[in-house]
């Protein structure tokens, strides 16, 4: 396969004379993404047909969601009259996609508008009622269906014989027979090994979404991927994969993300070969990048081997461990009981032994999950040294949870609202109540995500670990007490106001106080995600004095409450842990100020060993030359200073950033040598 060079001009040339224009569109929620694997497949598979290639001119349009109607109008103004417009629709871009389709029909009534994607497949009745200007809805895999449609459009022919579509016919919506799944993925032509994307387009994209297989053997009720399909895993040819990866890795920009969009990477034996090739190519082309994926749900030693390989090559951050819940009844309702939690615990232990960071996906709002079992699951992760990343439950089309009978049985209550309350563009049907969870408990659970991330992952991680180990009080209870302190008793009125606005906004999204957040964080926000959390963090770590005052007051509050409850506090151990917590904030302050920050610490050896065993402090540091107290200095590495604080804060939120692990340590032994 020749993958040497597919160059393109700086601006696209006009459509060749006599060719009909096909505009393919995807709105993305990701900043800097210019590559769409979905649109690439559609174009490459269609162009492989000589008749279609001779008749049509294809253009791919990947656009960020921001910009509103003005951006849509500018996009339409850049087109000559299109013959076909195709859009790929997900829950996050549904509104923009259907509005663009309406504007297309308003401007060019004869244009054929075709849509497909997970959010609209098999949703013909509500879709055509909502958007009657759409001509054709493609269900499931669209590459072959779209090619067949283009043939029919050329001849202005009848669509009745094309399987897997819904369309207008004589004023009524007609749904044809289902199409078979594509069993031979070689029928889908590579957009990477054909001149679909130029070198410049790949180099200009901050993320490349990439498939090595399709299908998922699981049937999780909340997931469209397996829940709606329960399909056998189908594989792309391995030689094709190696050739595609060669071109992609050679061209990808520095620090871009290669997202392997398989449902269960590591489930197949050949996935190790794919990982080995990625490592080899990154070295060959001297390419620094991030490899991200959905790891296999039932973990095995192969996952550990692959993750270790990528981690050693500095190609991956934290490894995802998908638990979603630890309650047996919740997992049974979710049809996830066959994904064993003991695999999770074993994998987490193995990764900790190898000092490879992990994060654990949990979903708040699963049917059957109470506020109590929710906290129990988080405690399970925290005490094991894991990093919980908690998402609200979204009611996705074509899942078991979306069935009316299921919703009635579990008394599901939903609200159409931003799934990230501070990002109004990410609107979804969010589950806010059910028979085991009240709406107010849901709000408390959403607040807890912020409290746990702020205090346990960042500001007081070491102190909380020592208090938990010496008193037996659960980490989640300590975090809840700290949240009460922040809401009611901390001295900073801005912190109190931000914390209170979180619950208020989840109760009523219109109460979001964006002016308050902007006043606190100014222009520090680069990524508009979890902005309450970002504002709290920036306020607390803005100055060394602000950090010290807040953390000392918070720890004193915990000690008072624990002492009142009859617990004995070892202040020597606790103060040593607090010194490490102060030190951990230097990397955040360094990023915020764009200069190197440093701090000294002294920690009792017993506390140090406890924190190493729990994974809170890096395990590879040599303290053999030190006696009963571990002394040292930390400072923020230069390489982090180029990162916006917004990016690093969200890296911590999502489990890939770990302040104490990302700092540089100087641990001199008693003779003065550096350990």
From TrEMBL:
Matches recorded under InterPro entries: BchE-like, Cobalamin-bd, Elp3/MiaA/NifB-like_rSAM, Methyltransferase_Class_B, rSAM, rSAM_horseshoe, rSAM_sf
Pfam families for this protein: Radical_SAM (PF04055)
Gene3D superfamilies: Cobalamin-binding domain (3.40.50.280), tm_1862 like domain (3.80.30.20)
Cofactor(s) the protein requires to work: [4Fe-4S] cluster
Domain B12-binding: 18-160
Keywords: Iron, Iron-sulfur, Metal-binding, S-adenosyl-L-methionine
PANTHER family linked: ANAEROBIC MAGNESIUM-PROTOPORPHYRIN IX MONOMETHYL ESTER CYCLASE-RELATED (PTHR43409), SLR0320 PROTEIN (PTHR43409:SF16)
Protein name: Radical SAM superfamily enzyme YgiQ (UPF0313 family)
